Amino acid sequence: MKQQLLTICAILLGFTLTAQTTFLPLQNIDPSTGAEPYEIEAGDLDGDGDIDLVMATNTNPTNVDNTIRWYSNDGSGNFSIETDVSTSIRWVDGLEVADIDGQFGLDIIASSANQGKLVYFLSDGVGGFGLEVSIDATLTGGPGEVVAGDINGDGNTDIAVAVFGNKTAWYSGDGTGNFTAETDIESGTNNPFYMDMADYDGDGDLDVVVGFFTGQSIEVYYNQLIELGSVSWIKDTETVDSGDAFLLHVQFADVNNDGDMDIIKVDNGGAGGDVDWYDKEKDMPATINNVSNASIIDRPGEVIVEDIDGDTFNDVILTDFGTSDDAIIWFKGANNANPSSTPTTITDNNFQMQALALADFDGDSDLDIASIGNASETVFWLENELITLSVNAFETNAINMYPNPSKDYVSFNGIQDSANLTIYSVLGEQVLQASVNDNSPLNISNLASGVYVVKFEGNSVTQRLIKQ
Question: Which residues form the Secretion system C-terminal sorting domain (predicted)?
């Protein structure tokens, strides 16, 4: 084990010594989205192995610019504007991509706050999407944030949504596109609107964090699937936080890189401007830590916690949704510590960027950034110039592993016959061994989210895998 750990440390050291995290100027994908693009998500929407994008507008209900639009990627970061997925759904406050029916590429899930509905669009396998399919058309309170995951442990994609006014609901999927409404995660009068889902308590099932408009509070709800054998929800006895000015985002993430999930929030209020994270044990008071305040960005939009500089530690990436700071910035993460208090600017413009999507858009194994200009009505991406691998890994006989990052499966090309690989955690622990070829995707769904090292037997190629 000690020798194995030394080997992995040497690999990771090679990553770190050659890392150079800079971003090229923004590359415009769509110069005219229609009024107020608001949501953006990334995923392999057409099943060709590279990462595409989907955008949705959030316009006044009377405005004609109501659009869900997707952009196909050729694998090198060259995006094409495709036929709109929908022009009838209005005021999209929740957008997600996930595999609903087990076919073709990822599917698109959206909520309409104005129309009170939750719907999906199936990838059709020929570079497009089917007609709108309703999951629930009775959400009169106004559905907001949408998340997808296997809530009941049956291997199928389930969907949860925060419904302003009355509840946070979840729907059980059967893997073929049918959904059944289940017992609400919570139901009350505090107006839930933002949420996230992850295994917060480390027991193997998916828990939920919800941000409420009334009281501006944040609460955690624990899934009892593992404990009881069926899904039910228990609220943490201690509120995470309350009294913000205008909650705009809540998320589970390991912000201080200690191996445990934390909670991070964005307060967009005029008297707020804070991005804080919370170190919290179950049923215990939370410890609040600040990442950014109004002196840095006074109207922050969205925060994402990912490793963008290849050092295996999560960083914090933040957008400006106001008119005075005009930036995407990032705070460098550290081992078992707060992120750096000094941000680095990625781009600076007057676009008012509410949403972010991070993925490897150009196939070079680092995380690039896509975003939307709410005021400029544009979609764009920024190429990460991080150099993460040794020279040998970029030789012409290199094995390509895609998509990367990935949630469930990775595929390969460049393998003749077959190859044996071993996947290691960043601590040097062997977590998976497999024999793979160009025609056999590798199932990584059982791996925890994080960064892994992939070593191919008899080959100088070593790659970094990001499991979402």
Answer: 401-465
Read off the DSSP letter of residue 177: S
The C-alpha atoms of residue 435 and residue 440 are separated, in whole angstroms, by 9
Token code pair at residue 66: 């109501």
Region of 260 please: left (phi>0), alpha (psi -120 to 50) or beta: beta
Residue by residue, pLDDT tens for the chain (468 residues) are: 444 444 444 444 444 434 468 999 999 999 999 888 999 999 999 988 889 999 999 876 666 678 999 999 999 999 999 999 999 998 999 999 999 998 888 999 999 998 999 999 999 988 899 999 999 999 988 999 999 999 999 999 999 999 998 999 999 999 999 999 999 999 988 999 999 999 999 999 999 999 999 999 999 999 999 999 999 999 999 999 999 999 999 999 999 999 999 999 999 986 678 999 999 999 999 999 999 999 999 999 999 999 999 888 999 999 999 887 879 999 999 999 999 999 999 999 889 988 999 999 998 888 999 999 999 999 999 999 985 443 333 333 467 888 888 888 888 887 877 888 889 876 667 889 898 887 778 989 888 877 788 888 877 667 888 887
Q: Give a three-class secondary structure readout of 117-133.
A: EEEEECECCCCCECCCE
Q: Is 458 left (phi over 0), alpha (psi -120 to 50) or beta?
A: left
Sheet holding 68-73, edge to edge: 37-43, 52-57, 68-73, 79-81
d(CA 30, CA 27): 9
Q: What is the DSSP letter of 25?
A: P
CA 91-406-341 angle, 5° bins: 75
Strand stretches in 130-166, DSSP E:
133-136, 143-149, 158-163
Contact 339, 317 (CB under 8 A): no
- Which of these, 192, 170, 193, 165, lies nearest to 180 by C-alpha position? 170
- The helix (run of H) or strand (run of E) holding residue 5 is helix 2-17
* 220: enclosing H helix or E strand: strand 218-223
For the chain, how are helix, strand and coil distributed in percent, rounded to 5? 5, 45, 50
What's the residue count for the chain? 468
Q: Which tokens belong to 354?
A: 């509410």
- Report whether the peptide linkage leading into residue 285 is cis, meaning its omega lies within 30 degrees of zero: no
Distance CA 204, CA 448 (A): 10
Distance CA 325, CA 143 (A): 30
